[in-house]
Amino acid sequence: MLQDYISKTPKSRKLYDKAKNLLPAGVSYFIRHFEPYPFYTKEARGSKIVDVDGNEYIDFWMGHYTHILGHSPPEVVKAVRNQIEKGFHYGTSHELEVAMAEQIVKMIPSAKMVRFANSGTEAAMYATRLARTCTGKEKIVKVEGGWHGGYDALHKAVKPPFDIPETSGITSGVSKDTVTIPFNDLDGVRRKLRKEEFAAIMVEPVLGAGGSIPAEEDFLKGLRDICTERHALLMFDEVITGFRLAPGGAQQYFRILPDITILGKIMGGGLPVGAIAGSKEIMGYMDPTIYERPKFSFHGGTFCANPIVMTAGLAILKTLEDGKLQHQLNNNGDKIRQHLKEVFERRNVDAQVTGISSLFHVHFTKEEIKDAEGVFRADHKKLEDYHLYLMAKGVFFLPTKTGALSRAHSKEDLEKLIAETESFTQKL
Questions:
Q1: Are residues 112 and 202 in the same domain?
Q2: Residues 120 and 259 in one domain
Q3: Chain centroid offset of residue 160 CA
Q4: If pLDDT is split at 50, 70 and 90, which confidence band does 4 have?
Q5: What is the pTM of this model?
Q6: Which of 320, 347, 368 is the last residue of a domain?
Q7: Beta carbons within 8 Å of 258's beta carbon, 6+ residues apart
Q8: Which terminus of the chain has a smaller tally of CB atoms within 10 A, N or C?
Q9: Residue 333 is part of which domain span?
């Protein structure tokens, strides 16, 4: 497999050799690195990406799960092209940010007011500060296996062993104010939080980096109850699930309302974006005309609500608001997970297929997967081999990561994934 890949990607290898002298590890984000070297994309359209050597791949990574309409969807391209003629970045208030906020409030059940950021990480950072401001408490609770970006207070217990720091450079003072709790284990959560005073619980309704594991509905309901009982806020990180599971995201899908919602990815139409949404009372703490320093919660940034980003976001959200596409993709997701499961069972391969809606992930293990610890006990080497095999056959997953469906994926694309999976199992 590796020799096949190397023989097909000489230009990518040359670019990587150059990149290693210019970028740490040769990449701008290590998640995109894989052995022997990553290929370099030249263009992307619909369900396909093409590398600098001319190799075409059916893309199931879809820009970190961003492109629910596929790469370069016509309605977004047209809207952005029109806006570019009017200006890239104003540095002033503009009508588009009002329209985009109105669209989000229309779609997200718990959202009454919105503030825009430039990434999910940035939105999670400001949401954490907002929760502390609202409650007057310092500690933040996060779920083991949850990924909320690189912000110090949340960059903890992402992968086992959970007691080892995820990165250097985070002070012990910051770490002590973040409490971690198990996923899908409500009794364990109650035991862990019995003596804690905390501002908020942050949770992904579907673990993303943690293996595409949906939260059990009773678990989310339990977190909602705990936050209400303890006068704390429930924060949903819907950077991945927002607008994908349903027009109103996971909170609509599970019928559980958080106090603060973090959004990103899909809502930017492929451009950098993040958002914080909540009630008028909570979001009011970001308003210095209501709360003077030091009682208000600062938020801001040069490129917040950039007009091109708002234009792209409006185009995509208007396409998604009736829920028809999500319904179709959810059905396709159910079929893909079932077909993959049947392939592995037929070939007597120990594998679990997790996911929900249009997200799916394979774990090579006999164990039922319910949390991030189960994910990391699975055979990662076999998963990497599986994804590298698919890549050599023109089907792209970022190795060991979750797959995501889009409007652009055809019946033939999905059939090829199943057929090449079957071919891989024959070689095991």
A1: yes
A2: yes
A3: 19
A4: confident
A5: 0.96
A6: 320
A7: 110, 224, 233, 234, 235, 236, 251
A8: C
A9: 2-62+323-403+411-427
